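User: structure tokens for this one?
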Amino acid sequence: MDQSWFEMHDLRKRKLDNSVWVPLRAEKEIRNSVRFGFIDYSEEFIGHSSIMVPIDQQSFSEKLDWTDIGISHTHNCSFHGDKYMPADVYCNNDFEGINLVLNQSFDNNLDCNEWHLHQDLVISLGLKREGDIWICPSEGYAEVAKLERNQEGSPVLLQIKNHFLKDYLCARKCGLYMTSYYSRDKICENTSVLSWTESSKEVKEGRNLWECRTLEIHEGGFPYGQKMAVSHVGRIDIDENEDIPDMTSFPTDENVKSDFFEKSFQGKKLYRIMSELWKYEWINPAKTSSIILGDEHPIDIYYITDAEGNKESGNSLNKGGKWLWFKPELVSNLLSIRGSSLNWYTRDTGRVACVPNGGIHFGVNELGLITVYAKDVGNLPEWQQQIWAGFNIAPEGGISKELHASQVKAEPAPTLAPEAFIERVITEINEEAKKQLDIRFFRGHHSISEIIKSINRFRAINENGLFSLAKDIARIIVDDIDIESVQKIAVPPKNTKWGSLKTIENLLALKISSENARKILSPIVGVYELRHGDAHLPSSDIENSFRLIQIDRSLPYVTQGYQMIYACVDNLYIILRILEKWNTKSEI
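Assistant:
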């Protein structure tokens, strides 16, 4: 810590109006492990308080200082004359403001104070509280406000994201008046860290005030060279052995004993350097309120719309008539957002959304690229367009044939995407195994549903993506097979141990030929072998595994991912059909 730490240039220059996060209230101490009064002890304090003020009342609010709306105040209902004042209202002779954070105290020493984010702000912005975080589901579950607590559980900092705060202030036609107090305190062996010799120094910039003071102290924290006076007074006329002592008589010289002495402080001479800063700021509202009032504003996001690389803005896309192309990585990025979803309409078309409601109708072309109708993207809110624009590329490979069939010819393709049937076929196999054989085919591990949601062809953007996709497919099929249950029907010979796939192969061989049983399981065997392909298998074995799945290695990786999923789902349905006819006389 040098002189600049005490001078607080970082804090004096900082403008909360431009900060990503705006502290609505703060009472935060940052202290090291050294005891107070000893060399290298340091402490930093950050304090903020704020009130929301109508724009036309700004001049009145700026007369208030730290003592008027600082952190020493708790909030409760009150009366101003005969008028009842709700706890959220700050009342001054000149105007009334609103406390966006309410500090609630309790009439005991057991419960910490609680800070409440104003309900109107929470509801108007559509926020949902989860623990000490407020999120906005309609904005991709963005983190909007957060409360920080100290080790004892007391609130020390509540801050809100600038964009959301200013949207709310715009809707309310208000600004936010903030008062702040900062202090930095350190005990040093000497004052050489400072370039000035004065015991105090101050700088005034408008209403903002910075001060620095140097105090001489004894080691332990007491003022250097000063004494402490101690006065001791006690009654001497009360008998402690009495059953009912009486001390109602007035103290006199005869029944009172007193002592007085002075004590000098000991310890070597140290220096306590303290700097303080009082700041006053005004947070302006946004010019428009897109979240609360739905105000429109230009979206300066551009997309490539033709082979020459020409770009058009998100607003101009609303004219319609064009398509856009995107890298397949887009889908995984969208699905990483809470509340996102991927649904399939046909083999190569579906809907992808990064919010619980809505979504974009997309298609996959022959190169594995994603194509969408440009107007659909242009209608997305700005925060979603920023994601889509990051994966936009020049047109290549034409639009998806199945998307064209749906959006242009109004004749949706009669095809199906295997991704849409993974969970269904696993469930049906288990139901049929129970019905026909009274066994459980799959264990149904609690993580299976979540893994299935991540299985889609867009994971396969490169070879490592294919291996990762194979790993997850193997986890929900091979790793989840209930070997002990199935071996009640397909019993292994004595002293013979079968793994999952060998157990299923021998189960099927009870109804069909061993050759056909092995053929049915070949794609699943290939996927199982590929699960460690990126680290353990020689290239020749890797290619053999791809041949077992019947993947065309000349096609784009996304298409190879589709073929992998299709082969496994198709063969699971073959297993299902065998189980359905297990106890019938009809030929399998």
